Amino acid sequence: MVIKEIQEYASIRTKARAYLCYILSRNISLQNIGVDNNAFIENQLQILKDALPQADLFYVLNADGQQIGQMLTKKGKISDTHEIGTDRSDRAYYYRTVQEHRCVLTDPYPSLGTNKMVVTSSFPIYDEANNLMFIICVDIELKYILKMVHPSSIDSTFGQFSKVVYAAFSIALAMVALLLFLKGISSFFSLGLHFNTIDINEMFKATILLTLSLAIFDLVKAIFEEEVLGKEKSEGAGDGHQTMIRFLGSIIIALSIESLMLVFKFALTDPSKLIYAVYLIGGVTALMIGLSIYIKANKVEKKD
Prior knowledge:
alpha+beta
């Protein structure tokens, strides 16, 4: 689900930055700053921990990007003292804050401590002469950002319920595809090895069952990958719904095979009905043109 979480985060990033920066600015107090910096840092981190219980880590950097004091976790435990003085000037949450002179929110990145995707919100503190004194940093796991800022996210209760429903439908459709496959295979085996007595109509029926099974299985694959696993959309498809694109592609393939089978069937049994195979080929062509226009339109809209 990481890819889908990142995609959703990109769509709500501005709102997330505004929300976190508001929380930080509202809870950061300049009382005791410059008098007792250690007390100031400890007090500020505790206040922020109470204001943002979902956050994983709270820590402070000096103007040079070196950590001041110990980290505070959401469980209230102080990290080891060896972190003090660590140079973090090469981190985005430091140099972007220095460059932009404002509160920033980073892109998602894997945490070294938990190996989970997190984002860091950093808030600069300046003195009266507009000199940078501290940067207060807060690490929050990506899934909690989505829950805080976007309640309808994929990790919400409804999002989890939707994944369960899609998984159930995928299993049901997979069973249908399996039954069609077994029926098609059994139809082939029932023809036997006596080639002179094989009924062409029965052969066509078996082929139709197998083709339909393949189309349904491809639909199941598209639904499960996109809605349950959160697989990234294939490049070139724009913002179009991949389930529909893959399903229409499967239908086009299935109908193309059926039209080819009808051409051979009517050519052998009743040439006067070949026109119906031509109609089917025309319908397949129209579907291909429509799908191409849909994909092209989504690509243009995405670029705009």
